[in-house]
Write a structure and sequence with these properties.
heterodimer, A: mainly alpha, Ferritin, B: about 50% helix, about 0% strand, elongated
């Protein structure tokens, strides 16, 4: 189960309304490499992991990603909470405003709604862990793209924190991959599916 | 005493020490017997528990485990029920409001 803690993992205190910036950052909520996708990916994959520690790591990183989703939503919310009718016409936010006003709805920067097809749960530990490693790198790229185009230091601070977390998660997933290899019998780790072809997993 | 400034300072301490706990938890998931990390986790967790307890006595409880109508929010910070025993879980600003209102 989950327990809620009434605070953000990293503080968000934005003073300046900017719907244009919100329309870009929302991608890390509902976009292809966003935090919703990340948390759902890890929390879906963990059940069938053959290595117990890796299932535990997926639970902990998936949980942290839920906290990151909350940070992203707080940024979008604060950037738009005092929106004027004139600002609602801002290019990049006007179409969103028509359907959602200043409410939070998971979508990519280009307007595509969140979709579970943005992540996989393959039932194969190696396939899934390589997806997780790639996901952290892709999310890092998005944060770097955002950091390059955004000027407001109040927005940049939490984005830099979130970018650094992608790097740490990548490192931990690399270690999880090695741990999964350790429980395989074969010298060719990638020839079997350790979640299905259980005879190749060390007892 | 400046309630708002004190609260923000305490909240910051909680954020810092809790982040240590978060990061060390992931590290220990893949290095479960590393002495230095185990010690650092123990120290940070002890500080976090004490800070959460102290914070809930002064202000709104941040976790359900800290909810206690008799002792919560001594300063009546951001509550609709000042001077009255109440369920303080709803006191304080929503986390996404930036903690400053």
């Amino acid at each position: 189960m989950w327990i809620y803690e009434k605070r953000l993992q990293f503080p968000v205190q934005i003073k300046k309304t900017c719907p244009k910036t919100a329309s870009l950052i929302i991608s890390q909520y509902g976009g292809p490499d966003g935090e919703l996708s990340a948390s759902m990916r890890y929390l879906a994959q963990r059940y069938s992991m053959p290595c117990k520690e890796v299932g535990g790591l997926l639970t902990d990183i998936g949980t942290e990603e839920l906290g990151h989703m909350e940070i992203i939503c707080a940024i979008v919310y604060q950037l738009t909470k005092n929106l004027t009718p004139e600002q609602a016409k801002t290019a990049g936010f006007d179409a969103y405003y028509i359907d959602h006003t200043a409410g939070l709805w998971p979508a990519a920067a280009a307007g595509l709604p969140f979709n579970a097809c943005e992540f996989q749960s393959k039932g194969d530990a190696f396939a899934d862990l390589f997806e997780d490693l790639a996901a952290e790198q892709k999310a890092r790229t998005v944060y770097e793209n955002l950091i390059r185009v955004i000027d407001d230091p109040d927005v940049l601070e939490p984005l830099r924190f979130l970018r650094a977390r992608e790097v740490v998660h990548f490192q931990r997933f690399g270690e999880a991959l090695e741990k999964t290899k350790e429980i395989m019998d074969s010298k060719n780790f990638y020839y079997f599916n350790p979640e299905f072809d259980k005879q190749f997993v060390k007892k | 005493m400046n309630t708002v400034a004190d609260r923000m300072q305490m909240l910051r301490q909680i954020t810092e020490v809790s982040f240590m706990v978060d990061d060390l938890r992931l590290y220990l998931d893949t290095h479960p017997t590393e002495k230095k990390a185990l010690d650092a986790f123990g120290t940070a967790m002890k500080q976090r528990k004490q800070l959460l307890k102290d914070y809930a006595a002064e202000f709104e409880p941040l976790t359900a485990d800290c909810v206690c109508p008799e002792t919560n929010n001594r300063t009546d910070f951001c509550t609709r029920y000042p001077g009255q025993a109440h369920f303080a879980w709803a006191d304080g600003p929503a986390p996404w409001e930036g903690g400053a209102n």
